[in-house]
Amino acid sequence: MRSIIAIMLFSFTATGVMGQDGAVREGNKLNKEGKFDEAVAEYDKAIARNPADRTAGYNRANTLARKGDKPAALESYDKLIAATTTNSTAKDIQERAYYDKGVLHQQQQQLDESIEAWKAALKLDPDDKQARENLQKALREKQQQQQKQQQQQQQQQKKDQQQDKKNQTPPPQSRLNQKQVEQLLKALEQKEKEVQKKMQQKGGSPNKPEKDW
Questions:
Q1: Res. 120 pLDDT band, cuts 50 70 90
Q2: Spatial separation of the C-alpha atoms in residues 123 and 179, rounded to whole Å
Q3: What's the whole-model pTM score?
Q4: What's the CA gap between 92 and 176, in Å, rounded?
Q5: What is the CA radius of gyration of the chain?
Q6: Which end of the chain is more exposed for a tag (fewer CB within 10 A), N or C?
Q7: Residue 50 in 3-state DSSP?
Q8: How far is 212 from 159, CA to CA, in rounded Å?
């Protein structure tokens, strides 16, 4: 994966060759020295003098990225993309801005945003091999995340089903067995009564007195 720093160094070289605004050259120099705030101020001067200076806008966004201010860098990329025309030179800068947006989003674990940024970059430059490789990696990672989420959902559903079974009332068969037990007890009580009755009947009438001879 090409890094943001590598892209910035290329743009700095290009700006020097093209004879850009002196503020842009000064901004490039300060950027290389690690004086990011001062570099941004120089790019702002160049943009104020020439709002159409896309190189100044691009280098400004990259400087913010190097500084670590990713939200500001993303905002700068978006402004640059929105303001870029369709001529070939501006189109090249716009493609780089989309690519770098993808890198920043990836660094912040914003997978969907990085995918969209690299798709946009490839629409402008289908031959951008690194953008294509990054997009493929991001899509594979997205697929893996979806599969993991699906597995977690299935596991949770299984746990919920098991809990539901535990919370359910006893099945009808358990109630039927209880009823049978009650009937059996009643039958035993009835049988005991019958046995007692038979025992009383075996005793017969009282013995008669012996015959008096």
A1: very high
A2: 76
A3: 0.67
A4: 81
A5: 44
A6: C
A7: coil
A8: 93
